[in-house]
């Protein structure tokens, strides 16, 4: 548990670790945004019943 008084000193180093080019590209790839892959999103949608 991070207490309010420690949050500001812990936030910056955690952000520097998490917000990296590699993590951003992996996130975009998982979402199908880059490289563009609409099938990644479309296959998670429910199929129409009719």
Write structural notes for this entry.
With 50 residues, this protein is mainly α. The protein has a domain at 20-50. Helix content is 62%, strand content 0%. It has three helices and no strands. The chain has helices at 4-18, 21-31, 38-42. The termini are far apart. The relative contact order is 0.09.
Characteristics of this structure?
0% strand; 50 residues; single chain; mainly alpha
Itemize the secondary structure elements and their pairings.
Blueprint: H1 4-18, H2 21-31, H3 38-42
Total of DSSP H or I helical runs spanning 4+ residues: 3
Average of pLDDT: 90
What is the tally of beta strands? 0
Shape summary: elongated
Amino-to-carboxy terminus distance: 49 Å
Uncertain stretches? none
Task: Give the amount of beta strand, in percent.
Answer: under 5%
Percent of residues in helices: 55-70%
Q: What characterizes the major β-sheet?
A: none
Sheet/helix structural class: mainly alpha
Radius of gyration: 18 Å
Question: How do the helices and strands follow one another from N- to C-terminus?
Answer: HHH
